[in-house]
Backbone:
């Protein structure tokens, strides 16, 4: 048996429970042309059809072209499992105006989330045919299975396919399933797989390759990079106006976003940097290295790495680090996990002991390490271990912190050098897939998406498709939307460009857009 919860909100004079049947009627299979409100052009705006007007108590809904496009990509999405990843996804997808149904066997979790977000909730087994049928009778556009069980996630996706759901995403964590992913995609019809631990391990490995950065993201087939960096009091960039940056440093980089306290800024050339600012820089990997070398702030790649916690994430991280020939020490208090880790990685030094024991850390030469990574199962322990490592060694320090409030506090106060979260990494990769689906009727799909400043800013990579109205137009002649910056261009020949006002987008370019609009779907929408 399943139970359905509805969040009741005032919307156009109706509460949500009254409005839902009207919306559902407008989202049938007959409207797969991505126009769920059957909108009709009228007098410079867009007016809903009579059916849509009846759903809003007879009042026509007027909206701009941009609003119409946002409505036109509204998707029916089912999220199965309300753990950290499921909740993070629900928050992101509801913010993007999708029709969401969440399924979980815990009624308290369901009741909690429908009181926070505009979603429908079903209590039941997400792998059950009847429960999914109650969510969307003829199948959804997308089902995302994020429960703690790989098998339950796979079953939920298979049932969704039978119901007519077009796309399915499964959270798969077990390393034993790695070799079967092609079979699951080709023969079972699953669209995408997400391994939160593996994705987070890769993010940690990227930072360890460039320890000067708090966070490091890559675009355009790794030709273009974006890093996060905090300005200390004695940093030579403090007090510098951005228009003077190239004149002083003589390296082509762009500061595309700044987090100053609770304020998020897309800066202009008149902006002046201050101590404590968290800045986001874009450039090629070579130029970023040159930039930090000229500031005497460059840190070489970490060669000796200590990891506390022999978790599944540690398995993936050690695998990444061994591939790039790093010396790794792993400490864990669980003898069975230590035995398993030593058998899988004979070249790794595995210590059975308490990673929070200062004497043990000293014996294992923490002071000689280039990097320290805290990956225990407790956020509080990871924060304390990271703070301790920072006090006794100036090495690169990374901590896994899943609880959002703890992560924001640790990052804002500089308590931990680099913070990673499985929920944010996973929701980021799935959000990129969803945006590409929503934009599938156009050719300039989102190729890469990364979130910055605790999700308040997004960096997106697009391909410049034929027919874009501003191809060849200098950027200085475009009226870009507020809070948006063209951060980088990679030409078809591989040349990386930090754009000035005289540069223009050309057909076939890959372009990186940084924006505070976290619902941007199309490259066409960067102009007013």
Residues:
């Amino acid at each position: 048996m399943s139970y359905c919860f509805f969040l009741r909100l005032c919307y156009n004079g109706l509460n949500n429970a009254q409005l839902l049947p009207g919306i559902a009627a407008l989202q049938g299979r007959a409207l797969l042309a991505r126009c769920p409100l059957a909108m009709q052009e009228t007098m410079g705006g867009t007016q809903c059809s009579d059916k849509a007007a009846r759903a809003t108590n007879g009042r026509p809904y007027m909206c701009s072209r941009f609003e119409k496009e946002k409505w036109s990509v509204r998707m029916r999405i089912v999220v199965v499992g309300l753990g950290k990843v499921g909740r993070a996804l629900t928050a992101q997808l509801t913010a993007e105006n999708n029709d969401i149904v969440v399924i979980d066997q815990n009624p308290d979790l369901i009741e909690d989330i429908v009181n926070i977000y505009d979603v429908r909730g079903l209590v039941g087994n997400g792998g059950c045919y009847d429960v999914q049928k109650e969510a969307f009778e003829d199948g959804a556009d997308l089902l995302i299975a994020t429960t703690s069980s790989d098998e339950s996630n796979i079953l939920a996706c298979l049932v969704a396919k039978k119901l007519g759901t077009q796309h399915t995403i499964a959270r798969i964590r077990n390393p034993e399933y790695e070799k079967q992913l092609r079979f699951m995609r080709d023969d079972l019809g699953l669209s995408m797989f997400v391994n939160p631990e593996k994705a987070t391990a890769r993010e940690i490995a990227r930072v360890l390759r460039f320890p000067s950065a708090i966070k490091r993201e890559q675009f355009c087939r790794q030709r273009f990079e974006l890093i996060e960096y905090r300005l200390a009091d004695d940093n030579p960039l403090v007090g510098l106006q951005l228009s003077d940056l190239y004149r002083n440093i003589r390296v082509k980089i762009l500061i595309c976003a700044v987090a100053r306290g609770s304020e998020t800024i897309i800066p202009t050339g008149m902006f002046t940097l201050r101590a404590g600012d968290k800045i986001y820089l874009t450039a090629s990997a070579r130029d970023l290295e040159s930039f930090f070398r000229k500031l005497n702030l460059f840190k070489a790649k970490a060669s000796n790495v200590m990891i506390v916690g022999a978790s599944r994430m540690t398995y993936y991280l050690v695998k990444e680090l061994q591939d790039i020939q790093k010396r790794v020490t792993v400490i864990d208090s669980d003898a069975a996990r230590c035995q398993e880790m030593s058998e899988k990685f004979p070249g790794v030094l595995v210590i059975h002991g308490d990673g929070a024991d200062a004497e043990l850390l000293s014996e294992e030469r923490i002071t000689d390490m280039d990097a320290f990574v805290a990956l225990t199962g407790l956020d509080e322990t990871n924060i304390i271990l990271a703070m301790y490592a920072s006090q006794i060694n100036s090495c690169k320090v990374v901590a896994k912190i899943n609880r959002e409030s703890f992560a924001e506090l640790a990052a804002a106060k500089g308590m931990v050098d680099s913070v990673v979260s499985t929920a944010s990494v996973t929701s980021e990769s799935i959000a990129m897939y969803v945006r590409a689906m929503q934009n599938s009727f156009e050719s300039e799909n989102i190729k890469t998406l990364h979130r910055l400043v605790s999700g308040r800013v997004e960096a997106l990579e697009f391909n410049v498709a034929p027919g874009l109205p501003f191809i060849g137009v200098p950027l200085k002649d475009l009226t870009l939307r507020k809070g948006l910056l063209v951060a980088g261009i990679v030409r078809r020949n591989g040349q990386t460009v930090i754009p000035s006002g005289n540069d223009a987008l050309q057909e076939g370019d890959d372009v990186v857009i940084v924006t505070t609009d976290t619902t941007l779907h199309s490259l066409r929408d960067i102009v007013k």
